[in-house]
Write a structure and sequence with these properties.
Blueprint lengths: L1 H16 L7 H11 L21 H8 L2 H17 L6 H25 L1 H4 L9 H4 L4 H23 L1 H21 L6 H21 L4 H23 L2 H7 L4 H4 L1 H21 L8 H24 L2 H24 L6 H10 L34
Helix pairs in contact: 4-5, 4-10, 4-16, 5-8, 5-9, 5-10, 8-9, 9-10, 10-11, 11-14, 11-16, 14-15, 15-16
Catalytic activity: heme b + (2E,6E)-farnesyl diphosphate + H2O = Fe(II)-heme o + diphosphate
GO cellular component, one term: mitochondrial membrane
Protein name: Protoheme IX farnesyltransferase, mitochondrial
């Protein structure tokens, strides 16, 4: 019995003494590492690597310019040029579109520079290049300076001074007035609609060198279109706008947001119906645009009554179809294709100016009476 007890005690001692040698190698290594005082990174943020900046500079510039928004601005400018009653010049048309796009890119870049701390709080904008640190603020300012100078120069020297003045004024209005007002008053939406209505005026001025009633009609349509478009978009972004402190109608006065959207769809319909009587389009435009505008009003009415996510999304998506379709209808039903057509029509309607018409366009009316046929003397008379 004593020999058995001694043998059991010796077995326990040997097992307890050699337990470390029986552990796996990984366990031993972990224990060794933990024993050392290695400093660990406990920060809640880390630097964003920028080694790929040179390879993606084109993509980053497109993101700074808000490429899709800039494309829409250029499209409205091109529509204004095409709808103007003046001869179409391809070079001027291309320079006007390029200059408008560059000025819009500069405005969007400056806008992002000012709104970095607020964009970081919104899900829709938290992945912008300045928020993520893919570009530095100096890059945004440099990009804006280069594109604005190039764009305004193209408009001034390649198009005309009026178009350049409209572009420069719109750039200042967007960056220095509209951008800070977004956090001050809901009037920012009305001011932003003015900013969006100027590009088609730039296209019109680029083609004709002036602004007339046709430019006003186009500007009113673009101005009113932005209310149902943006109000429907902002409806589902209310948490983001509220978190970032933006004073939008959808946040501060939801009922007003819905009313304004419905009201301006009616303004668009009335403007399209008045367009033929103001000499901008023919009568077919009023008839062909009516179903499009009525459906737009119907979706705005649904948004006004239901005020839910589904109705606002339908209104926003249809607004993206409505504007290009309406511009296309205006172009197809354009009343005057050149300024000379308008001038001739005006001259003919004034009887006191008929004497001023050239001989090639003058119509001579002979008095009614017997017609005497002159015959050759050598021809015998039967």
């Amino acid at each position: 019995m004593s020999n058995g007890t001694i043998s059991h005690q010796l077995a326990r001692i040997s097992t307890s003494h050699c337990w470390k040698s029986k552990l796996p190698i990984t366990t031993q290594t972990t224990a060794t590492v933990k024993s050392k005082n290695v400093p660990q990174d406990t920060r809640v943020w880390k630097e964003t690597p920028s080694h790929d900046r040179k390879n993606n500079v084109g993509q980053y510039c497109m993101m700074l310019s808000k490429f899709r928004l800039t494309s829409l601005v250029v499209m409205t400018s091109m529509a204004g040029y095409a709808l103007a009653p003046a001869p179409f010049e391809l070079t001027t048309f291309a320079l006007c579109a390029a200059g408008t796009g560059l000025v819009s890119a500069a405005a969007n870049s400056i806008n992002q520079y000012h709104e970095v701390p607020f964009d970081a709080q919104m899900s829709r904008t938290k992945n912008r290049v300045l928020v993520k640190g893919l570009l530095e603020p100096t890059h945004a300012i440099s990009f804006a300076a280069m594109t604005s100078m190039t764009g305004i120069s193209l408009l001034y020297f390649g198009v005309n001074p009026l178009t350049a003045a409209l572009g420069a004024g719109n750039l200042i209005l967007y960056t220095s007035v509209y951008t800070p007002m977004k956090r001050m008053s809901i009037l920012n939406t009305w001011l932003g609609s003015v900013v969006g209505a100027i590009p088609p005026l730039m296209g019109w001025a680029g083609c004709t060198g002036s602004l007339d009633i046709g430019a006003l009609i186009l500007g009113v349509i673009l101005y009113s279109w932005q209310f149902p478009h943006f109000n429907a978009l902002s409806w589902n972004l209310r948490p983001d706008y509220s978190r970032a402190g933006y004073r939008m109608m959808a946040v501060t006065d939801p009922a007003l947001c819905r009313r304004v959207a419905l009201r301006h769809t009616a303004v668009i319909t009335a403007t399209c119906l008045a367009s033929p009587y103001l000499g901008v389009t023919n009568n077919w435009f009023a008839l062909e645009s009516l179903p499009l505008n009525i459906y737009f009003m119907y979706l705005a009415w649904e948004f006004y009554k239901k005020s839910d996510s589904a109705s606002s999304r339908k209104l926003f998506r249809f607004s993206l179809i409505h504007l290009p379709a309406l511009m296309l209808l205006m172009l197809v039903n354009k009343k005057y294709w050149s300024s000379s057509d308008t001038q001739e029509q005006t001259e003919i309607t004034k009887p006191q100016d008929l004497a001023k018409l050239p001989d090639s366009k003058r119509i001579t009316v002979l008095p009614r009476g017997p017609v005497v046929a002159a015959q050759d003397a050598e021809t015998p008379i039967n």
